[in-house]
Specification:
The complex is a heterodimer. Chain A has three helices and no strands. About 6% of the residues of chain A have low confidence. By secondary structure, chain A is mainly α. In chain A, 67% of the residues lie in helices and 0% in strands. The radius of gyration of chain A is 26 Å and the shape is extended. Chain A folds into two domains: 44 residues; 43 residues. The longest helix of chain A has 41 residues. Chain B has eight helices and no strands. The relative contact order of chain B is 0.08. Classes of the chains: A mainly alpha, B mainly alpha. Chains A and B meet through helix 1, helix 2 and helix 3 of A and helix 1, helix 2, helix 3, helix 5 and helix 7 of B.
Chain lengths: 117, 171
């Protein structure tokens, strides 16, 4: 029962943050008019002299062919390994930097205490 | 060993396994171009469920630190607390924006949400921020990570090898 209550609190926090974000982002978007821009509605006229890259109402062609724009078929395992190594590398650099900084500050504090003591 | 010690030990082990699983899932989910959109989306939804368990396991710390936040608290714990909140909000942004631009999960559930450019941008921004925050989160818990790995992973492995060596010598 206690665990269920805690789960409910966590889910309520999820819902609160998500609800707030959803409201804010949608309100901001309608203010800016991003939705209308994406739909090509009025208010977002093409500047004079600029030709459309694709005819109205048609999808653009991708060099790799239909359905290859974001479907997980490019590079496969090797690409995934590269991405994973890059992400782990970023995390490792941050961890190393913070741990070094913490140790440095601890040593400095100890030295200061020794001098003042 | 007392019952409380056994409980703490089991909880630490569960936390370690869970955190490793979340990390691996995160590495897979962060590469949607390689894993594919369905895996990316369903894995992210499962991470959300596992996050609830992760928070439940840290519940006591969350409650205690929340109560003492405005009172006496050391800088590192205070920093850690603020960072955890940032991470929580960022994960919520990441998940929500992911659900809004979802191509698999939401259509499967029969839910359609209005999209716009802002959601994709927000998804990319929160994903990049997540890597940085995860790095900081790991860094602040680094001593726990090292100690727990030593105690529950490296020492048992070392123990198995030393037992085998002793057996070989006595044979």
């Amino acid at each position: 029962m206690k665990t269920l209550g805690r789960i409910m609190i966590i889910l309520a926090a999820f819902a609160f943050v998500m609800g707030l974000t959803y409201t804010v982002v949608n309100a901001a978007s309608s203010f800016v008019g991003a939705t209308a821009f994406e739909r090509g509605e009025e208010g977002f006229q093409r500047p004079e002299g600029v030709q459309p890259q694709v005819p109205n109402g048609e999808r653009p062609e991708f060099s790799g062919g239909e359905g290859r724009e974001f479907r997980g078929d490019r590079g496969g395992g090797f690409r995934w390994i590269l991405g994973a190594v890059r992400n782990m590398g970023i995390i490792a650099v941050i961890v190393a930097a913070v741990v070094w900084l913490k140790n440095f500050l601890r040593k400095r504090n100890q030295e200061t205490e020794q001098v003042s003591g | 060993m007392t019952e409380t010690q056994i409980k703490t030990k089991n909880r630490t082990k569960t936390k370690l396994v869970l955190d490793v699983l979340i990390f691996i899932a995160f590495l897979i989910a962060m590469e949607p171009r390689s894993s594919g959109i369905p895996i990316h989306e369903w894995l992210a939804v499962s991470i959300l469920a596992v996050l609830v368990v992760h928070l439940l396991l840290s519940w006591d710390w969350i409650v205690q630190t929340t109560r003492r936040f405005l009172g006496k608290l050391n800088t590192q714990t205070r920093l850690n607390y603020l960072l955890n909140w940032s991470l929580f909000i960022d994960v919520m942004l990441l998940m929500l924006s992911g659900l809004v631009i979802s191509e698999v999960v939401m259509p499967t559930l029969g839910i359609g949400l209005p999209r716009n450019f802002a959601w994709r941008g927000l998804h990319e921004f929160s994903a990049n921020l997540f890597i940085v925050l995860l790095g900081l989160h790991t860094a602040l818990h680094w001593s726990w990570v090292v100690d727990t790995f030593k105690r529950y992973v490296f020492q048992p492995i070392g123990h198995v090898f030393s037992t085998n060596t002793k057996k070989d010598i006595s044979a």
